[in-house]
């Protein structure tokens, strides 16, 4: 493309390339929302349960989509395939002469199949929940605020922990999401268990509902595991011989143990 100068000394090719980049990021929210759509529709499980590549026709009939929306599903699935969530293969169905497109899971969408020990769909449920995601609309207001409130706190006029404790549905989203993330960590711990050998006790500070501690207590029956979190998070959770829950505020004090485990994610701190 010609790169002659135009107004203000900006080259035409820079304008076009800039526009492409700008639009890519401007529409990036659609990537997240298409992901949310496919998780909300349970498509990873539907394809997984189908046991073989699934055609559009099979998918829309399982989803019970009205005829008018079949092409919409087709477009969404092609876009999700472009993003790497599905592969598109061509298969021949019985009684047909022409090959047909069919969807299969990729290593990414396999992480969205609910009911496995490495499912991250609860994380998608939480992060793309409108209450959480729209709080980032507050960034402009937040940057001018002299206090230390997060955008989430500004949007809802309450601290995230108070919000969760007053909203059981979101509390469940949050706990399920952090537990799903911890399942993945457990896969890493499984291969590096040597780190915990020789310890008699460990406290998982801000350990949520105890997914990591549960794994440790089962893998190392002689290790005393304590999960420490806010009282409303750990109340009524099932303890075992070497697994206990303690409620409190980590900024005041934490239970004594040979080692401290601290694993938090920071999305709600920004
Ligand atoms: C992102 S979650 C991490 C949970 C778990 N460690 C994990 O990685 O799955 C942060 C945790 O910190 C807890 N938390 C927040 N403020 C706390 C405080 N002041 N004292 C103890 N726990 C707190 C929350 O209840 C929540 O379970």
From TrEMBL:
- Claim: Transferase is one of the keywords in the record: yes
Q: Which Pfam families match?
A: Dimerisation (PF08100), Methyltransf_2 (PF00891)
Per the UniProt entry, the signal peptide is: none
O-methyltransferase dimerisation domain span: 24-114
Q: Which UniProt keywords apply?
A: Methyltransferase, S-adenosyl-L-methionine, Transferase
- The keyword Transferase appears for this protein: yes
Q: Which InterPro entries does the entry mention?
A: COMT-like, COMT_C, COMT_dimerisation, SAM-dependent_MTases_sf, WH-like_DNA-bd_sf, WH_DNA-bd_sf
Q: Which residues form a coiled coil?
A: none
**Which PROSITE patterns does the record match to this protein?**
SAM_OMT_II (PS51683)
Q: Please indicate which superkingdom the organism of origin belongs to.
A: Eukaryota
Provide the O-methyltransferase C-terminal domain boundaries: 136-267
Q: Matching PANTHER family, A to Z?
A: O-METHYLTRANSFERASE
What is this protein's record name? Answer: Isoflavone 7-O-methyltransferase
What species was this sequence derived from? Stylosanthes scabra
Organism ancestry: Eukaryota, Viridiplantae, Streptophyta, Embryophyta, Tracheophyta
User: What's the name of its gene?
Assistant: D7OMT_1
């Amino acid at each position: 493309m010609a790169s002659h100068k135009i107004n203000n000394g900006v080259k035409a090719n820079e304008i076009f390339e800039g526009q492409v980049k700008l639009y890519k990021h401007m529409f990036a929210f659609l990537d997240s929302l298409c992901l949310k759509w496919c998780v909300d529709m349970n498509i990873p499980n539907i394809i997984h349960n189908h046991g073989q590549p699934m055609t559009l026709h099979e998918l829309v009939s399982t989803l019970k989509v009205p005829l008018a929306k079949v092409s919409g599903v087709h477009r969404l699935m092609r876009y999700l395939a472009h993003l790497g969530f599905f592969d598109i293969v061509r298969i021949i169905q019985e009684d047909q002469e022409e090959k047909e497109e069919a969807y299969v899971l990729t290593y990414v969408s396999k992480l969205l199949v609910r009911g496995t020990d490495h499912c991250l769909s609860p994380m998608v449920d939480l992060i793309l929940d409108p209450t959480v995601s729209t709080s980032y609309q507050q960034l402009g207001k937040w940057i001018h605020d002299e206090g230390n409130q997060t955008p989430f706190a500004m949007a809802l006029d309450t601290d995230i922990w108070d919000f969760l404790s007053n909203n059981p549905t979101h509390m469940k989203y949050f706990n399920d999401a952090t537990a799903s993330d911890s399942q993945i960590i457990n896969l890493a711990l499984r291969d590096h268990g040597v780190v915990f050998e020789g310890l008699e006790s460990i406290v998982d500070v801000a350990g949520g509902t105890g997914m990591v501690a549960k794994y440790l207590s089962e893998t190392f029956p002689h290790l005393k595991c304590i999960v420490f979190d806010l009282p409303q998070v750990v109340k009524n959770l099932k303890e075992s011989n070497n697994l206990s829950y303690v409620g409190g505020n980590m900024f005041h004090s934490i239970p004594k143990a040979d080692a401290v485990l601290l694993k938090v994610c920071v999305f709600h701190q920004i």
